[in-house]
Specification:
With about 130 residues, this protein is of the alpha+beta class. Helix content is about 25%, strand content about 30%. The longest helix has 20 residues. The structure holds zinc ion. The site of zinc ion has 8 residues, from loops.
């Protein structure tokens, strides 16, 4: 299944399948779950969140999307505009992932990078690298 990047100023209320909406100004992206269950999946975009790469072959979202808070528990990657399915996450896997995310955030903020000026530089750098 293909998924396309669509840049928007505001996140639309109703999302269409097969489109990854990206409101850059708000560092927000959203799409409908790739399994077709209709769940709205939000992925914040930023240095400690997801990153979007709008490549020549299509959009990539990194890291993978794990919808364990939804009944379908879908887990997939968006790479080069394609949905690549991953195995279902076990509870231990989910817990480990959450702990890793929390640790990453703690490390990031502990490094004094909450400073707004530095964040601004990081954001500009990130834009230059990925856009
Ligand atoms: Zn789903």
């Amino acid at each position: 299944m293909r998924i396309e990047l669509q840049r928007v100023q505001f996140m639309p209320k109703v999302l269409k399948p097969g489109i990854l909406y990206f409101a850059e100004e708000y560092g927000a992206a959203a799409h409908l779950c790739a399994c077709g269950c209709g769940a709205k999946i939000r992925t914040p975009i930023g240095p400690t969140e997801w990153s979007i790469d709008d490549g020549p072959k299509g959009v990539s979202l990194c890291p993978s999307v794990g919808n364990w808070q939804h009944p379908c528990r879908s887990h997939y990657w968006i790479a080069d505009g394609e949905i690549e399915w991953s195995g279902e996450w076990t509870d231990e896997h989910i817990k480990a992932g959450r702990e890793r995310e929390a640790a990453q955030r703690t490390k990031y903020y502990a490094a004094g990078q909450t400073d707004k000026r530095k964040l601004g530089i990081l954001r500009r750098l990130w834009r230059r690298l990925f856009q």
